[in-house]
Each structure stands twice: as C-alpha cells, then as structure tokens.
Amino acid sequence: MEIKRLHVGKRLSEVAIHNSTVYLAGQIAEDTSADIQGQTREVLGHVDRLLAESSSDKTCILSCQIYIKDMADFPGMNEEWDAWAPQGHTPPRATVEARLADPKVLVEIVVIAAQR
Question: CA-to-CA distance for 46 and 44, rounded, in angstroms?
C-alpha cells in the first residue's frame, strides 16, 4: 500500500495520493486582503496546480467541500466557481458557513479527485 505525499510540511501535506485517488488539504488564499471573488479565484488556482502535479484535473473531481466565512459571500464565491467549474463535470459539492482559523480567510476548499 503506497501513499505518495506532495508538499510535505511539519503539520500537513498539501496532497496525498492513494489508489489513484488524490486528496487535497484545505486550500486558502495567500492574499487575504482580496474580497471573496479574489480569494476564491486564487484558491481555485491552487486546486488546479495541485491537481496537475498529481496527474489529475478539475474534470476528475469526485467531491468538494467549501467552507465560507460568511454566507453573505455565497453569491460572489459561486460566480467564481461557475466560471471555473467545467460544464458536464461539475462535482458533488457541499458549502457550509464556518469560522475559519484565520479571520482574514474568507473561503477554504477541500477536494478529492481521481487521477487521469
């Protein structure tokens, strides 16, 4: 049973791959001065990059959980999501309002995907 990890840190790995399934850690924006649309756009870019490094892409997403600081930002987050999500390949998804670890973080996205 092999588990491959990418971007391993002291506290967490950004990616774990097991049995051709890719598990991403929760992705957040580095630019926390951005609004919900800017943070969501940046986070989705992180997801794209990590999936590409893992021999996957957004058409292979099996499940997605979105944590949002304030549901008032839901429409803005969805606007970015809708522009990014591939039609015909939109994954199962849940979105919940949550108190995030850093109050400046407006959105955190967790993805599970299959490898290509």
Answer: 5
